[in-house]
Amino acid sequence: MSTNPLSESWSETESVNRNSAKRAAQLDLSLLVVVLMLSSWGLLTILSASAPVAQTELHNSLFYFIRQARWLVLGLVALTLGAVVNLGLVRKLARWGVLITGGALLLTHIPGIGVTELGSSRWIHVGPISVQPSEVAKLAISVYLADLLARNGPRSWNLSQFRQTILPIGGVLGMVLIQPDLGTTIVLAVSAFVLFFCNGTPLLTMAAVASTGIAGAVYHSLSTPYQRLRWEGFMNPWGDPTGIGYQLVQSLMAIGSGGILGEGWGQSKQKLFYLPIQYADFIFAILAEEMGLVGSLSLLGLFLILAWRGFAIAGQARDPFHALLAIGLTTTVVAQALINIGVVTASLPTTGIPLPFLSFGGTSLLATLFSMGLILNVSRHTQRHLLIVAKGAAQPQ
């Protein structure tokens, strides 16, 4: 019995399209694997870095590990939610996100609600837990700017639209700066700058706004005793190794002790009450001591892969909002990681900023994993668009 070549060809095409549909339903697996690797590595590093302090202060060496493990479970839920949520809904909530974040930042300065630790008012009490609004601000600003810039091309700016951008963004940055939290302020500013640049905003306009922001940040840092001492410690930590330079000196000693291959997991000596906050902002120093140069470069490699996949997803996106959202969130996470590592290695002035995925802290982990979920969501939409195009091209003429 004869067969119709066109029918066979169409059947084969349909089979290919069905396979493509299955692939389109998948997320960007490379990014997902990197996120899961970083999250797992962070949990193991917290276990090692926090055990001595937890045992001595709380009589439970697993205290911080268990708490972070619980946050990680919630973070994986947030990752899943971010990967499946309707991005149109996320976009509609962009302005509300900035307003709520701004309100939460104001609450950090209200006695009885805000919590001041180590000279900074960065937390608020929500029942039995403490929440850090500045971590949520990183997510809210990226979503808000992605929406605003996607609706207003680089040539359509007017004074009203300029105010819609500068006032809320500048207000959030200002409230974060006066906590004081210079590190998060820089991360937010870098993310905003990259988004404006990718949207085609004239460089002269960007330079004028950036110059004003930098001048304000420098003035505030130099006029605030808390920040000024940190600058002095950064410039010459060895000048006062038992005072203002103590933490940075201990961090450098930990990194130097790691050598090429490290002391081995769990074998850090600096975590034995020498390096303060070793399971939070300075956890990279413990990782470098235990895993050495090889482990440190491996961690940097994972963040570089994350950056590559995040920007690649943005480049493939057909919706301007999706593209800008992926750019903003990727920039935020990668910039935060680089700044944290720069601080720990004495390459940048000391700022209290966590290392994404690794530092102890629930708010940071939840916000980071939800951000990664949104980027995975963008990749899923991009694959679906490519599938539709492929199906249209495969239709018989």
What does the secondary structure layout of this molecule look like, with pairings?
Layout: H1 5-24, H2 29-58, H3 63-84, H4 87-92, H5 94-107, E1 114-117, E2 120-126, E3 129-131, H6 133-151, H7 159-177, H8 182-198, H9 203-223, H10 225-235, H11 246-258, H12 283-316, H13 320-344, H14 362-394
Antiparallel strand pairs: 1-2, 2-3
Explain this structure to me?
The chain has 14 helices and three strands. It has 397 residues and is mainly alpha-helical. Strand 1 and strand 2 form a beta hairpin. It is 72% helix and 4% strand. The chain has one domain (28-391). Helix 6 (133-151) runs parallel beside helix 8 (182-198), helix 6 (133-151) runs parallel beside helix 14 (362-394) and helix 11 (246-258) packs across helix 12. Mean pLDDT is 85; it is low at 1-17, 19-24 and 386-394. Strands 1-2-3 form a three-stranded antiparallel beta sheet, covered by helices on one side.
Defining key terms:
14 helices; three-stranded antiparallel sheet; mainly alpha; disordered N terminus; 3 strands; 397 residues
The rough form would be described as: globular
Low-confidence stretches: 1-17, 19-24, 386-394
What oligomeric state best describes the polypeptide chains here?
single chain
Spatial strand order of the main sheet: 1-2-3
Mean pLDDT figure: 85
Number of beta strands: 3
Structural class: mainly alpha
Distance between the termini: 26 Å
- Give the percentage of residues in beta strands: under 5%
How large is the radius of gyration?
A: 23 Å
Query: Could you estimate the helical fraction of the residues in percent?
Result: over 70%
